[in-house]
Amino acid sequence: MSHEHRQQLESTAREMVQQGKGLLAADESEGTARKRLEGVGMEPTAEARRQYRELFLAAEGASEFISGVILHDETLRQSAGDGTPFPDLLRSQGVLPGIKVDAGAKPLALAPGEKVTEGLDGLRERFEEYREQFGARFAKWRAVITIGEGIPSRYCIEANAHALARYAALCQEAGLVPVVEPEVIMDGDHTIEQSLEATLETLHAQFDALVEQRVMLEGMLLKTNMVMSGYGCPQQATVQEVAETTISCLRRVVPAAVPGIVFLSGGQDDLLATAHLQGMNEIGGVPWELSFSYARALQGPSLRIWRGEDANVPAAQAEYHHRARCNSAAREGAYSEEMEREKQTVA
Prior knowledge:
By secondary structure, this protein is an alpha/beta fold. It has 13 helices and ten strands. The chain has an eight-stranded parallel β-barrel, surrounded by seven helices. A two-stranded antiparallel ribbon has the order 4-5. α10 links the parallel β9 and β10.
């Protein structure tokens, strides 16, 4: 890899986690998008998905808080109502277009209850198309690690770490910044201590694999879960406990060379996801930017307002702008409940 190539990767990665900004994860699969649209009473057609994407991608002023958007393959090829291709629309706002490239988590052979993410076949050629034809600047690949009776197994963790590292190497070869997402999911009744143990093992294996695959750490971002109690756990950790435990975990396993960590929101309520991000940035003292790469926590409230009605678009986009602004503040440790009250007063 040439010096110029390395510089370009590092520059893009740092642009993605620049001060006050984070990522919008608008890369839900067709199945997930269907559930979300049906959840607000909409028919989940391709046109409904396109309108759903445009609601956020065309929101005026959101680029003040959003540095990049992760798109689904379908969305990358779609256009706004005025005919502007979505990647061009984002670039016109100074927002980097990214692309989800994995083919989803599939059952891992001989490992009941565990999954491995597929999609490496033909990836080099797809990267060339995404970069040359659509101008993508970064990509994302997600692995799913489940906590349960006797799992996650070392087999599952290492299989996913290897695939993620191979993806990241191909990504950097193509001149795209890899967003590496090994997610320990919080479905289940496990404790925060069990979540910590699984996350530590997962991230340790992940960075071992990245180094083995010659991935340039300065030119990638880590997307990971916060260390929390399982959603079904009777004893839910407080915001402060989640912040402290997550920071402690990351300090032990994430190299300082990584420019930034963009957290996923998982199934968290939008306000809680913001509060957790605020708590971590209040602690501070870490070598990486701590930012966000949220899907539901940024889009959920707006979708419930919109429901496919043109008349509701301004209010829905205003809500998205507000949530993006709150998370922008949280990634700087400057979010407060007063910001939520201010929004209610304006509304």
